[in-house]
Amino acid sequence: MLVRRTVPAIAASLAIWTGLALGTTLFGRKHYQAPLLTKGSPGYHNPPWVVGQWYTGPNGSVVGQQTIRNVVAHAPASVQNSTNPNAATVYLTAHHYTQWSTYQPESRFWHFQLIEGGWLLALSLLLIAATIWLVRRRAA
User: Fold this and answer.
1) Can you give the pTM of this predicted structure?
2) Paired residues of 55 in beta bridges
């Protein structure tokens, strides 16, 4: 209604939809419900949406990835060349480094869908009402 040309209106609608989709994915969803905290990596038999991961050192403070790489670099060759993906984690745990993860479990999928569906429905109704108001205003 605002653009008055078909192709530019379609392009504007696509741009707005893309912005809403990216904004929801990158910023909105993580605030729908507080993520769960777990020591170690969450189970991958039922993969969750991992929001964040970090390590704490022997003194309990957060350490950076470079510190973790340095500790693993000084590990024995049996750990560095192991085909077991958990070998480095076991080595780090033995040296008092702990991995922490925050995640949204898969069981919250439909809850998040209802939240998104609700605010998108409210936005659609608001835009429909604004369009009807604009059409009636211009026709008068």
Assistant:
1) 0.68
2) 63, 99
